[in-house]
Amino acid sequence: MKIFLDTADLSEIRRAADATLIDGITTNPSLMAKTAGNRDPKEIYREICDIVDGPVSAEVVGTNKETMLTEGRKLAQIHDNIVVKLPLTEEGLKACRALTDEGTPTNVTLCFSVSQALLAAKAGATFVSPFVGRIDDISGEGMQLIHQIRQVYDNYGFETQILAASLRHPQHVVESMLIGADAGTMPPKVLWMLAKHPLTDQGLEAFLADWATLGAEI
Ligand code: E4P
Predict the structure, then answer these.
(1) Is 34 a catalytic residue?
(2) Would you state the pLDDT for residue 129?
(3) What pLDDT sits at residue 65?
(4) Ligand 1 center to residue 28 CA distance, Å?
(5) Strand (E) or helix (H) holding 137
(6) Dihedral of CA 119/72/44/30: which sign?
(7) Among residues 167, 122, 123, which one has the least CA distance to residue 145?
(8) Ligand 1 centroid to residue 79 C-alpha, Å
(9) Are 162 and 109 in contact (CB under 8 A)?
(10) Which of 104, 100, 102, 97 is nearest to 78 (CA)?
(11) Tens of pLDDT along 8-29?
């Protein structure tokens, strides 16, 4: 499963990219608003693309097909790795089809049902982003959605990649992998949590203490 980092925070992106642990980036207007300050978001997308060699999702904010297309084309010009993120609305699906036909990669976002995911695939989306955590937030079964989309896409040979989104903790990531999501996007905090295990910490502490009794160097 590809690991995408869900942030526009350049220092977090640099940290994860330096560790060569990420395959791409997803952003959304809220994440951009958190970190951009008074910088032009387009400059930030460019900088992200310089740091990470992989898909970088940049979202449109228009609500009709034509505006989305204009914004999507502008975003796509920033860098070859830009993936235009579009909301799962009727207009968003129309813009998705048009951008796909132009050869621009797309990520259809805010997906909360299998029927929506079906339409994203029919519109030729490169990625569909089902939001697991936000379904859990309203007492639903977010992971069930990933299961069902996987089954439908496999039944009919749809090539749209399932990008499990709104992953809030390591178990979400593990379950997405077990189901066979193509990619998962997570905040930096969750990425680093994947590496943590108390037995690793305890084991390392004991190994270092024992080695120190030797008074030797490697
Ligand atoms: C995905 O593309 C979204 O940016 C993101 O995963 C949403 O996560 P949240 O529900 O934690 O805000």
Answers:
(1) no
(2) 98
(3) 98
(4) 8
(5) helix 132-137
(6) negative
(7) 167
(8) 23
(9) no
(10) 104
(11) 999 999 999 999 999 999 999 9
Which CATH number is 2-212 given?
3.20.20.70
- Domain borders along the chain are 2-212
Determine the atom of ligand 1 nearest the C-alpha atom of 165.
Answer: 6
Identify any residues that bridge with 127 across adjacent strands, giving them in sequence order.
107, 161
Q: Quote the tokens at residue 211.
A: 């080695």
Distance of CA 74 to the CA centre of its chain: 21
Find the catalytic residue in 2, 74, 85, 189.
Answer: 85
Radius of gyration of the chain (CA): 19
Question: What residue's CA is closest to ligand 1, atom 12?
Answer: 166
Alpha-carbon distance values, 149 to 48, 139, 217 (Å):
30, 19, 54
96-103: average pLDDT: 98
Q: Probe ligand 1: pick from 131, 134, 173, max atoms within 8 Å of CB?
A: 131
